[in-house]
Structure prediction request, 374 residues.
Amino acid sequence: MTTRNSRKKWLIFLKITILGLAVFIALIGLYMMHPQFGKRPSGERLQRIQLSKQYRDGKFQNSSPTPQLTQPWTVALYDYFFKRSKETSPSHNIPTMPIDWEKLLSQSHGLVWFGHSSYFLRLDGKNILVDPVLSGSASPIPGSVKAFKGADVTTVAALPQIDFLFISHDHYDHMDYKTLKALQPRVGKVIVGLGVGSHLEYWGYHPEQIIEKDWWDEINLGDGFSVTVAPARHFSGRSIFTANTLWASYVLQTPSMRLHLGGDSGYDNHFKEIGNQLGPFDLAILENGQYDLSWKHIHMMPEEVVQAAHDLKASLLFPVHSSKFVLANHAWNEPLERISKEAIRQEQPLLTPMIGQVIDLDQPPLTPSYWWRK
Prediction:
């Protein structure tokens, strides 16, 4: 009798467990249907992807072999959660400045940083926005990867009309559903890598707004502006079902300046290739932060960022990808501290503005304020 009761209890427990797992999987499936996860490329868009030189063995590939992790993912996950710096985020409101939009829009060559990889450029009469994440979060999971206290200095409503919007790739800390959904009526053209346009159309962007290109494609934007889609060393995807998109950097030529707008990238010979073919550059904007030895092939160390700027033949370097979100184990201010030291060592002019600070690129402040130490 005891054995029969034990077996019955075990079967009940097993049924409840299976039912619970089924409900959990169903809920995950329903949540994954939310528009923020984007949409897989199909039809003519998918055909273009499959014809790309970067598309091999059923997916986009980097020019060099690029493992996402240099150690087992279980070890990387353990280190991320249990070996983190105690100062991955500031203990106080991060220092920022209120944006003086009137001043910025009156400049021939102006810049303002919104933190992480989001920034606005005013160049030769055009308004240019790059990788805007203005919703306060860089994750599809509610309440996670929240912006540092005080780091949100603007909203979509405060932005002027945008002539050119650049998206480097479709990761959540660069391509934010809420921000882009609200931006759509304000955007003239949005420039993206192959496949990324599928998300944008799903979110309400018109096909005529989207310019979707492969590496080394050149685009005439009119009025003396042109852009070349350039390589980066990274990866993409908003879920396991929507990873068929191309990551990129951009070479932007205006009537009076040439800039390299660098998306996420590990260090590789593509920087020299871009510098030799399309350089020199008045300004290189490169990611510097959220790095770790566990993923060194897809995110540069600060010292490598300075070397990349040299490879690009950049007169001025502006490091981004820090000071707003925690996506790695290092202290929040370490990227700016390390790159400042390396820039001095390699004699690389460096721009380190405070979030919200309006910068006149014709007279940039080249003496670091070390605002992150305050």
